[in-house]
Design goal:
Blueprint: H1 3-7, H2 10-21, E1 29-31, E2 37-47, E3 50-57, H3 62-66, H4 74-86, H5 90-95, H6 98-108
Antiparallel strand pairs: 1-2, 2-3
Length: about 120
């Protein structure tokens, strides 16, 4: 082993990366040709303008990361990022059922990152 391998557990890092991307195996998640990802909600959100049945995430830009500045805690920042990247109001996430909410937040964590070797989306 070299010094880097002594410090880093490369197998563990690879396993963590696979866990991050495991949400893409969910049949409700679609990777689009333009690199965006769409999540079909199990429980659509009712609004005055109709129902939100899907949420599509873009690759985060600087403005999306800046939207997290005013939020407290890691989870608050993650949700602010998710809302900004999807270009939807934060209250939509507040209205989501737990299963939809957690999947959406996981998918945002994959945006702009390369898939692990051998994994397809």
């Amino acid at each position: 082993m070299n010094d880097l391998e002594d410090v880093l557990d490369l197998d563990e890092a690879e396993e963590d990366q696979k866990k991050l991307f495991s949400c893409l195996d969910d049949p409700r998640v679609k990777t689009n040709e333009d690199g965006t990802r769409t999540v079909t909600l199990l429980n659509p959100i009712k609004t005055k303008r109709g129902e939100i049945r899907e949420v599509t995430y873009n690759i985060p830009k600087g403005r999306d990361w800046m939207a997290t500045d005013s939020k407290k805690g890691d989870f608050g920042k993650a949700v602010a990022l998710a809302a900004s990247v999807a270009n939807i109001p934060l209250v939509v996430f507040e209205a989501m059922d737990e299963e939809d909410f957690l999947l959406c937040v996981q998918v945002v964590g994959t945006m702009g990152k390369k898939l692990p070797t051998g994994q397809t989306s």
